[in-house]
Design brief:
14 helices; 25 strands; 7-stranded antiparallel beta sheet; 7-stranded parallel beta sheet; about 25% helix; binds acetamide; alpha+beta
Length: about 550
């Protein structure tokens, strides 16, 4: 598949995975973690094993680029050597995934000596001309409260912690360059000024790559929208990967030359080994093709047919490839008091079946209608076999379906939920916040006005919000419902302060029922206050919280 670089992410909050002779505790302590059930998980590659991997790759024309993360994502290292943090620790290797506020101290010269010694051993092992130093998701909270880091900012004439991050990266880059090597970092290294010869790996979209290329820096493009193969098929299916164009829009030919490649990222720490084949294949086939040809040469149908043939090869190789897409794309439109439901097969050669409220099974052939609140189950078959998992959804009939929605704040482009109307379309998001139904707001309140053509009698509003604190998504601090008959004077009808602890773990949503004595209303306004900043106990303390909303039901 002509993948010619292995970018090997060797250090994380949850584990240090490379043996370093000068610092044995990095692996003795940093590569093991105590899971919530009390078991121990971990391991690392010895230098001998790493040499074997590099040699194996090299025989196949594949370069191996190591990534040693700094200044963030370094809790495993700090668990072993807490003296290189701002607070001195102690720390434990993290068990949850996420972003953590304990990072290397930028005010401490011994931190740099420590990192340079590690890099020396890494350079000994890896012949690659590049070294990846991470640089992503490094909260500034500790630096803001650290006397040494603040002194560094003052001594160096910097203005803030972003410039301190830039200082950190540039100091490391100077060291890397002095050893004849080149630095790669995630797109956050653009913040506060880019190190001179750095190559940027754009992951939070294409903007980082575009900015790098426009300022004469090389860039690698691997945005979460197309290139994160740890994400599910509902976010990134085969066709979506095939639509990836690694050259960001708006670059001149000369600037485009700075785009030196793309990557598909398989973050394995939370993907059991036996699921990795199915996440990587067949999506990597699409990635391979779009990294090696031009947009004018792309034809999804022709590619799709070749993929079907390619499966025979993958079978021979024992690759346990996964699905191309979710089995069924569900769409419903509410008009004239009914839901018109269209089911689209995720890919060719699938038959779709459905069932309403667990009664008779139908084979789907065209759009059908239902009225009222119903449970719909749908699944696909390919030949005689079921393809993927069944799709289940509750479709809610309620008054809000006929309302016009206005007054929304700006929701994030990656979490539109399907647009303004998705918040009153009868469908509520699932326990997967990336399912395309949740609407996400970063650091902002949710406000919306539902306007009706005629006066309605209403006595309750039901809303749902999501919480997943490791992804900075919190319940609102307060929900208020107002009604109006003229769109001018609004009356506060009900308020609710969710009682769910911000510390409550896991990914879940909660339904909030706001009831009031029946009133007449032509306008209903719902306001939900964003939780604010991630609190001090939170790994990403001080960062803007997300608010995720779906389905405002009106009765
Ligand atoms: C990243 O996914 N944090 C680079
Ligand atoms: Zn510090």
């Amino acid at each position: 598949h002509k993948m010619n670089v292995l970018h090997w992410h060797l250090t994380e909050d949850q584990g240090w995975r490379i043996e370093i002779n000068q610092y044995p505790k990095l692996t003795e302590v940093g590569s093991w973690r105590t899971e919530k059930d009390g078991s121990t998980y971990g391991g690392f590659y010895t230098q001998e094993q790493i040499k074997e991997v590099i040699a194996y790759a090299s025989q196949r024309g594949i370069a191996v680029i190591p990534e040693i993360e700094l200044p963030g994502h370094s809790v495993a290292a700090l668990a072993a050597y807490p003296q290189y943090s701002c607070t001195g620790g102690p720390f434990e290797v993290e068990t949850d995934w996420g972003v953590f506020k304990d990072v290397y101290c930028a005010g401490n010269d011994s931190t740099f000596a420590f990192l340079e010694n590690i890099l020396d051993e890494v350079f000994e092992l890896f012949p690659s001309e590049y070294i990846h130093i991470g640089g992503d998701e490094s909260p500034k909270f500790r630096w803001e409260h650290c006397a040494k880091c603040q002194k560094r900012i003052a001594d160096e004439g910097h203005h803030d912690e972003h410039e301190l991050q830039s200082y950190f990266i540039q100091r490391i880059e100077n060291y890397i360059n002095s050893k004849g090597k080149k630095l790669i970092g995630w797109d956050e290294i653009l913040e506060g000024g880019l190190a001179q010869g750095a190559t940027v790996q754009s992951w939070r979209g294409f903007e980082g790559a575009a900015e790098a290329a426009k300022t004469g820096h090389d860039a690698i493009v691997s945005p979460t929208s197309h290139a994160y193969f740890d994400y599910g098929l509902e976010a990134t299916d085969l066709e979506k990967v095939y639509s990836f164009n690694p050259i960001p829009e708006g670059l001149t030919d000369l600037e485009s030359k700075h785009i030196i490649g793309g990557e598909c990222n398989m973050w394995t720490e939370r993907a059991p080994q036996n699921t990795i084949d199915s996440k990587v294949f067949p999506r990597i086939l699409a990635m391979s093709e779009v990294l090696w040809n031009y947009p004018t040469e792309r034809n999804y149908d022709a590619f799709y047919d070749r993929v079907q043939n390619h499966y025979k090869r993958l079978d021979q190789l024992g690759v346990d490839y996964g699905l191309e897409t979710i089995p069924v794309h569900f769409n419903s439109e509410h008009t004239d008091g009914e839901f018109k439901i269209t089911l689209k097969p995720g890919t060719k050669d699938l038959d779709i079946h459905y069932q309403i409220n667990e009664s008779q099974v139908f084979q789907y052939d065209s759009t059908f209608s239902v009225t009222g609140t119903n449970h719909i189950k749908s699944w696909a078959t390919k030949g005689l076999k079921t393809y993927g998992e069944a799709f289940n959804i509750d479709l809610y009939q309620h008054k809000g379906l006929d309302a016009t929605i206005s007054g929304l704040n700006e929701y994030y482009e990656g979490y539109t939920g399907g647009g303004d109307n998705c918040i009153a379309d009868g469908l509520r998001g699932t326990t997967n916040f990336r399912d395309g139904r949740w609407q996400g707001y970063s650091g902002q309140n949710f406000t919306s006005t539902l306007s009706f053509e005629t006066i309605q009698k209403v006595d309750s509003v039901i809303t749902s919000f999501f919480q997943y604190n490791l992804s900075w998504i919190f319940m609102p601090s307060k929900i208020t419902v107002y009604t109006s008959v003229d769109g001018l004077s609004y009356f506060n009808r009900a308020e609710l302060e969710p009682q769910i602890s911000a510390k409550a773990e896991g990914e879940f949503f909660e339904e909030f029922v706001l009831t009031f004595p029946e009133v007449e209303a032509k306008y209903i306004k719902i306001k939900a206050e964003n939780y604010g900043k991630c609190p001090d106990w939170h790994p990403a303390a001080g960062s803007d919280a997300w608010l995720f909303v779906d389905e405002i039901r009106v009765y």
